[in-house]
Design a protein that fits this description.
alpha+beta; two-stranded antiparallel sheet; 143 residues; five-stranded antiparallel sheet; elongated
Length: 143
């Protein structure tokens, strides 16, 4: 049942937050050149001030507010301004849907198996035993 346990579409991306608005154009230009996170942070951050912070990872659309707002195509996205900080998303690669590994899907698989066992058990009990619903007791519970 591998198809029941799949990741949705993901993006390998960097979320770049610029703390100094004066540096925004320079950082975007530098990012467009394909520089690494280390190169960008070393170039723009000094010992006393942090002008840029970068979070890199593989994200689903629902996982992060910045990723939700991004266009799902390779490259730099539009700026998202929040107060004195500006954030943009740099998408490196779109990862197509793929099956989860056993470790990633273990909890879901276990829950589905328990539901299956419970359903089978209830079917077996109903075929084995007759039961009647006490309507008066049911109505008193509803009230």
């Amino acid at each position: 049942h591998k198809l029941n346990y799949r990741w949705g579409e993901k993006a390998k991306a960097s979320i770049v937050t610029v703390n100094n608005p004066e540096m925004l154009k320079k950082i975007r230009k530098y990012s467009r050149k394909g520089k690494s996170i280390e190169e960008i942070t070393e170039h723009f951050n000094t010992d006393s001030t942090i002008n840029v912070t970068i979070t890199e990872g593989i994200f689903t659309k629902k996982e992060n507010n910045y990723i939700k707002k991004a266009k799902w195509k390779k490259g730099l996205n539009d700026n998202i301004v929040e107060g004195d900080k500006t954030t943009f998303v740099m998408i490196h690669k779109i990862v197509p849907p793929a099956p989860k590994t056993l470790n990633e899907a273990k909890g879901l698989i276990t829950a589905d198996y328990q539901n299956h066992l419970e359903t089978e058990w209830i079917k077996e009990l109903r075929s084995k035993y007759d039961f009647k619903i006490n309507k008066n007791a049911l109505e008193s519970i509803k009230e």
